[in-house]
Amino acid sequence: MGHRRQDGAGFGQDLRRSSVHAGQTGFIRNPEPRMLQIQIGDTLITRVQDYEGPGFAPEEMFVNYQPGQWQSERDWLVPRFYDPQANQVRTSIHSWLVRTPQHTVLIDACIGNHKPRPSIPRFNQRNEPWLERLAQAGAHPEQVDFVMCTHLHADHVGWNTRLQDGRWVPTFPNARYLFTRAEYERWDDRRPDYVPKPINQHVFADSILPVVESGQMQLVDVGHTVDDALTVEAAHGHTAGHVKIRLQSGGEQAMFSGDTIHHPLQLPFPQLISVFDENPEQALQTRLDMLADCAEHGVLLMPTHFAAPYCCHVQADSGRTHQPSYRGRWHAYCEST
Ligand SMILES: [Zn+2]
């Protein structure tokens, strides 16, 4: 579908080197400047944005951030991923729409509209045209066959449901919603061992239970596959049952990493630990394993929260005093409109 394009509109030495050099991956121009489309084998991936803009200060975001740690990365980090004046990272919250030859799959479901999120003003009672963006991406809710959530945090499940006549109903009436069993059990607030977190206040009730009650939830375990193209893999630590989803098509690979990595600063400094990681040691090991895998096997890294250009290939950076360390090979084409 569409034409393929392999050159990036480079924005810097490192970024120019990023043009896709191997395999069939192609970047497809799209009239919506922030809507990135990528062809991997015979699968089309489209980014569907719910938020892009300022995020936290880095010292609020990472428990072990050193003041000024961004400065050695200024060339590629500023202004795309960090605003030094405001001392805020730039962040994105998006879904990945994946169309295999057989099915339409939505990976992660962002924040959603009208949701009460008292502890996070940016998530609270929103009214964003995410469904219109989904339509621009070529999918109406009825056409989504599977919703796959890397985990059940508020910013990954919001569009699972929408408000209709005062009730939360599944946004995708024909979809099966695939959650991992461990993650579902982590957030089931009816369990006696439930541990609440401010970020997920109300989330189970308004974004998970309606899908359970409609009979659309399917609990899966690590190893589950969709269309022999998407495989659920363990990536625990950020949350108890957090997973990553590997795409394999036409000899190419991409990794929907969810919150295994939050920000590009964690490429040169993968040791930076997010304040949102429930098990920081496990989350760190998961991140290191994933980055090593991406670097070694040429896997396109597709996180949920990287600002434009949203995804990258990963290269080991042996020149650093601390190891391991990585650099992103950024694909800038999507920023050229
Ligand atoms: Zn997240």
Describe it for me?
The chain is α+β, with helices and mostly antiparallel strands and 337 residues long. It has helices at residues 13-16, 58-61, 74-77, 130-136, 154-157, 181-187, 203-213, 280-297; strands at residues 26-28, 37-40, 43-54, 82-83, 88-99, 104-107, 146-148, 161-164, 167-170, 176-180, 217-220, 225-226, 230-234, 243-249, 252-256, 300-302, 312-316, 326-330. It starts with 12 loop residues before the first helix and ends in a 7-residue tail after the last strand. The longest helix is centred in the C-terminal third of the chain and has 18 residues, at 280-297. It is built from eight helices and 18 strands. Strand 5 (88-99) and strand 6 (104-107) form a beta hairpin. Strands 1, 2, 3, 4, 5, 6, 7, 10 and 11 form a nine-stranded mixed beta sheet that branches. A five-stranded mixed beta sheet has the order 12-13-14-15-16, covered by helices on one side. The chain is 18% helix and 26% strand. Residues 1-24 and 29-33 have low confidence and may be disordered. It binds zinc ion. Zinc ion is lined by residues 153, 155-156, 259, 304-305.
Keywords:
337 residues; alpha+beta; nine-stranded mixed sheet; five-stranded mixed sheet; 8 helices; 18 strands; 18% helix; disordered N terminus; binds zinc ion
Helical segment count: 8
Characterize the biggest β-sheet.
Answer: 9 strands, mixed
> Order of helices and strands, N to C?
HEEEHHEEEHEHEEEHHEEEEEHEEE
Given the helix and strand composition, which structural class is it? alpha+beta
The helix fraction, in percent, is 10-25%
**What is the distance, rounded to the nearest whole angstrom, between the alpha carbons of the first and last residues?**
20 Å
Return the average pLDDT rounded to an integer.
89
Question: Which percent range describes the beta-strand content?
Answer: 25-35%
- Determine Rg (CA atoms, Å): 19 Å
> Can you tell me the overall shape?
globular
Number of strands: 18
Oligomer: single chain
Q: Which spans have pLDDT < 50 for at least 5 consecutive residues? A: 1-24, 29-33
Bound molecules: zinc ion
